[in-house]
Amino acid sequence: MASSANGNSDDVDEKITTTTMTGESFRRITTNPTTISSNSIWTNMEMGAFSRSSREDEDDEEALKWAALERLPTYSRLKKGFFVTGSPGNAREIDVKSLGFQERKELVDRLVGDDEEDLSRFLFKLKNRIDRFENLNVEAEAYVGSRALPTFLNYCFNLFEGFFNFLHILPTRKKHLSILKDVSGIIKPGRMTLLLGPPSSGKSTLLLALAGKLDPTLKFSGRVTYNGHDMHEFVPQRSSAYVDQHDLHIGELTVRETLAFSARCQGVGPRYGWEGGLKPMDAEQLREYGHKMVDFIADYYKSIENFPVLSEVEPGYLHKLLPDSAPSHPESLQHIFDDIQTKILPGVTHWQSPNYFAYYPSNSSIAGFLGEMLSAGLNIVGFSWITSPAATELEIVVLDWLAKILNLPNEFLSAGQGGGVIQGTASEAVLVVLLAARDKVLIKVGKNALEKLVVYASDQTHSALQKACQIGGIHPENCRLLSTDASADYALSPAVLGEAISNDVANGLIPFMLCATVGTTSSTAVDPLPALGKIAKSHGMWFHIDAAYAGSACICPEYRHYINGVEEADSFNMNAHKWLLTNFDCSALWIKDRSALIQSLSTNPEFLKNKKLPLMLQASQANLVVDFKDWQIPLGRRFRSLKLWMVLRLYGLENLQGYIRNHIKLAKHFEELVSQDPRFEVVTPRKFSLVCFRLLPHNDEACASKLNHDLLDIVNSTGKIYISHTVLSGKYVLRFAVGAPLTEERHVNAAWDVLQEKASTLLGSM
Ligand code: PLP
Fold first, then answer.
1. What is the CATH number of the domain that holds 717?
2. What tens digit of pLDDT does each residue of 302-338 get?
3. Average pLDDT in the 255-279 region?
4. Which positions carry N6-(pyridoxal phosphate)lysine (predicted)?
5. Which pLDDT band holds residue 22 (cuts at 50, 70, 90)?
6. Cβ–Cβ under 8 Å, residues 6 and 193
7. Same domain flag for 403 and 506
8. Residues 574 and 630 in one domain
9. Which of 285, 319, 343 shows the shortest CA–CA distance to 335?
């Protein structure tokens, strides 16, 4: 039983005064109900005088309308109904025999819609009600003693006797019983009260009386009101949360839901997030909301092609749509989902759309997503081994697995002096190795030599290197971004590097780091690692390889040769979050000499020492374990290895190789399409899944940039695809990167159709 049947005077508001009747306290509503306006339909139904309670509850109107319907003659009642659309009280009468299209749609929506949310609304509506009963008397005439036994003989006797009683021939032998006598009280469904009493004390009769479901043979007197409305005005089942043992009073509710509701109102039970004290990690609420969120995300992926790939909003759009300040009170999850649909998703560029071909991909997958979920669920902060041994150890194991898949030299494995670590991004990876390289050389040449340190890379190197130099105190002029050109497919020339180093050395500078790239951001250029590595070694320089994008392709034996020469490297980095189905962020960095990294990045503050811990737990101090805090910039770190682990286990290497090969095949297909159209050219030979191409200039090279720029704008503004651009040797070039997990050949073909169509329009208008 989940209703309040007490006369607790705290329960009601100021407008109610307390009276005492038959030993029970209750309050009387002193405000007279006022008449509310009603539309003609309801006036015709003799319900023109809807009274409204002092609470001005709009929902009452709905309940009253239902009551009016319930009292119609059966035939008319079957034909009538009404929809509640939008806000409460916004009810519209309908004739169920002649439903229009919109009404049918609304009906179906409502039937298949989120009834949980409806139920919640219904319950909260009930919560604010004050239901009262005054001077209830329920009496019965019944046989007692042996005559009341359910035997066949008694049945026959009672039948005959009843007939003769009716004819006033025989006096009745039924005894008069009083089941409820002068019972009064107040009910607030928002409060859960146990209605206790010995068997046959009338508990069920009271509930049935309140629900208007008393057996018609019982004699009933007294008054039951719902928010000031009399019983005859209301359909009681729609007005309160009374549930009997058989769970019949309210079709919409089960006993469980009613209990859950009452519990929630009091801050206990599974779904109290909104009302009671905040309990932010209740397992049942997590389960319920988590399922809803997964459903939401699954639906997103199902309908992802319906969104414009590139967001079309104006800068500052969201500021206009959201309130100025955070809510003081909790809001419903449904409300938030609605906002995500209407306000957030329009401002999302859909990286996971199969029509996304811009920049480099950032893959999501079910495995990656599950790992991310688990990581969020455990929410550890694994800076040192003891803060979550599994996090550190799984990271070591998984990066060893991936190193072996990539066939990296053994020195990169954890068993030796090196090992792998997961950084957030390739930018962080290059920064930490730059710091290690800097400090290593400064130990040799003296700390005052900082301004003489020079770093080398090609002009195609990602700007992350420049940023690392800025952070690491390397003088901007000492960051040599050496020229590349089309003749070497934009790869760094060893000769150019050698010459630059010689010049710098001659000028008293100190070369300390070389950063080579396998798969440059602009055009997937691959620097010649073996030759570059040798040069770096001969000058005692740190050799870092950035394979952020193309590293994933090297899990396939046929592409592994692109990282030949990695044996010469001191560090190697690839982003599993780009093209290896591991949700952002997961950037794998391997290093041959981990002590160099630790030397640069380790701090050993007192609060992190394990002094008071047992010997086993003093592992960090004893250098028995890895503390990844010393391999990265921040202290805290997430359990990111779970994602990669899930990906490697749930998919297996062969599937991952197939995934990479398929994207490369699709890119090759696109490249062929481009080559077959004489209006276009492929600008650099394709190596992986990126095609660099452009619309050929009509007359002069100067107009080519504008032409391709316009083409890019036009195709992206269709919302059908999203591509990006780069500049190679001064040419404005379009980039088509295949790599979204849902992309199939049909998407590539459709993208090419869009490009061709818009190119025709552009060229036609010239
Ligand atoms: N290096 C290369 C070759 C890249 O292509 C990118 C990004 O696309 C980066 C580094 C930077 O990646 P992150 O965002 O992980 O720092």
1. 3.90.1150.170
2. 999 999 999 999 999 999 999 999 998 888 899 999 9
3. 57
4. 578
5. very low
6. yes
7. yes
8. yes
9. 343
Using the atom order of ligand 1, give the atom closest to the CA of residue 428. 16
Give CA–CA dist 531/142, Å, rounded.
107
CA distance 77 to 71: 8
Give 548 Cα–ligand 1 centroid separation in angstroms: 6
Helix H or strand E encompassing 592:
none
323 in a structural domain: no
pLDDT mean over 748-765: 95
Alpha-carbon separation of residue 522 from 234, 591, 693, 696 (angstroms): 71, 26, 12, 19
CB 405 within 8 A of CB 555: yes
Atom of ligand 1 nearest to the CA of 359: 8
User: Cα dihedral angle (87, 93, 96, 97), rounded to 10 degrees?
Assistant: -140
Q: How far is the CA of 690 from the centre of ligand 1 (A)?
A: 15
Q: Are residues 591 and 466 in the same domain?
A: yes
81, containing H or E segment: strand 80-84
Containing 732, the helix (H) or strand (E) segment is strand 731-737
pLDDT at 246 over 50: no
Tell whether 557 and 589 lie within a shared domain. Answer: yes
**Ligand 1: does its nearest atom lie under 6 Å from the Cβ of 425?**
yes
Q: How far is CA 750 from the centre of its chain?
A: 30
Q: What is the 3-state secondary structure (H, E, C) of 480-528?
A: EEECCCHHHCCCCCHHHHHHHHHHHHHCCCEEEEEEEEECCCCCCCECC
Provide the domain count of the chain.
4
Instruction: Please report whether residue 329 resides in a domain.
Output: no
Ligand 1 near 426 CB (within 6 A): yes
**Whether residue 434 sits in one domain with residue 486:** yes
Q: Do residues 371 and 469 share a domain?
A: no
CA of 494 to the centre of ligand 1 (A): 23
- Same structural domain for residues 516 and 630? yes
Task: Supply the pTM of this predicted model.
Answer: 0.69
Q: Could you tell me the strand order of the sheet in which 542-546 lies?
A: 419-423, 587-591, 571-575, 542-546, 510-517, 453-458, 479-482
**336 located within any domain:** no
Kindly give the distance from the C-alpha atom of residue 522 to the centroid of ligand 1, in angstroms, as a whole number.
11
- Residue 620, Cβ neighbours under 10 Å: how many? 22
Domain boundary pick from 113, 145, 164: 113
Ligand 1 mutation target, pool 545, 546, 583, most atoms within 8 A of CB: 546
Minimum mean pLDDT range among 57-66, 150-159, 181-190, 354-363: 57-66
Verify whether ligand 1 is closer than 6 Å to residue 353 (CB atom).
no
**pLDDT given for residue 120 in this prediction:** 59
pLDDT for 439 beyond 60: yes
What is 621-632 written as a DSSP string? TTT-S--GGGGS
- Ligand 1 geometric centre to CA of 430 (Å): 10
Return the residue whose CA atom lies nearest to atom 14 of ligand 1.
425
Q: Which domain holds residue 562?
A: 384-637
- Give CA–CA dist 735/217, Å, rounded: 83
Residue with the two structure tokens 């077959």? 676
* Distance of alpha carbon 61 from alpha carbon 40, whole angstroms: 14
Amino acid letter for position 50: F
* 670 and 736 share one domain: yes
Q: Where are the alpha helices (DSSP H) in 580-677?
A: 594-601, 641-676
> Which residue among 609, 637, 665 closes a domain?
637
Task: Quote the CA–CA distance of 758 and 243 in Å, as a whole number.
Answer: 65
**CB-ligand 1 contact for 427 (6 Å cutoff):** yes
